[in-house]
Amino acid sequence: MNLELNNKYALVCGSTAGIGKATAIALAQEGVQVTLIARNEAKLKTTLAELPQQRNHDYIVADFTNPEELKTKVTNYILKNHGFHILVNNTGGPAGGPVFMANLDEFQNAFTQHLKCNHVLAQAVVPFMKDACYGRIINVISTSVKQPLDGLGVSNTIRGAVANWSKTLANELGQFGITVNNVLPGATGTERLTEIIKNKSAKTGNTEEEAANAMKQAVPAKRFAKPEELADAITFLASERASYINGINLPVDGGRTKSL
After folding, report:
1. 255: how many CB neighbours lie within 10 A of its CB?
2. Which pLDDT band, with edges at 50, 70 and 90, does 53 fall under?
3. Architecture of the domain whose range is 9-186+226-251
4. Per-residue confidence band for 94, with pLDDT thresholds at 50, 70 and 90
5. CB 169, CB 180: distance < 8 Å
6. Domain range summary for the chain, segments of one domain joined by +
């Protein structure tokens, strides 16, 4: 399938590891010129060197704890370089724990890093998308928007807010050739999954291998996802072929989520 992504520009958040990095590579393989964005410049340079070099890829160093600084850096980059047809919002999830035990700072920090940063990035990139009559905003969130996950109270709460923000934005921007969709990863082989397995092991007294196997048994596919499998779904949603898919939550979870 020709995804018609040559000569497109993409801004990929959290792109030095896991799903973000896999997405940056997948988009670059389709001919997209990718701008990576994360807080660690050394890791950004390493990832940049791994991208297929058909285009002049680049990076922005930014910290998602400061939305206004993030917006300024991205806006200045656009003014000096180019806008973006594709925005992939992807940020590491909040720490686990019961929602009742969470303090207010945990909610505030998660809301800032996820919803506020997604919002300022959308505001920065949408004018170019409108001019191009082509835009794809893809938010990597969680299956918890369909079925809350035990032990991830703050994440469940904030992901739901992001999903509803996204759906509202999809309704507002659809008339301009811009789609806004959410990809909902299941258990995926990333650093965050390793952390979750360690926490489960500590709480249950089982080994990490036992904890991981128990999680796999809850998935009809009986395995964890590869980051590249999420990247493939994101890349398709970023393409011309997905032009009439808008405002959806797409689980990529091997069938784990029980709701339709």
Report:
1. 12
2. confident
3. 3-Layer(aba) Sandwich (3.40)
4. confident
5. yes
6. 9-186+226-251, 187-224
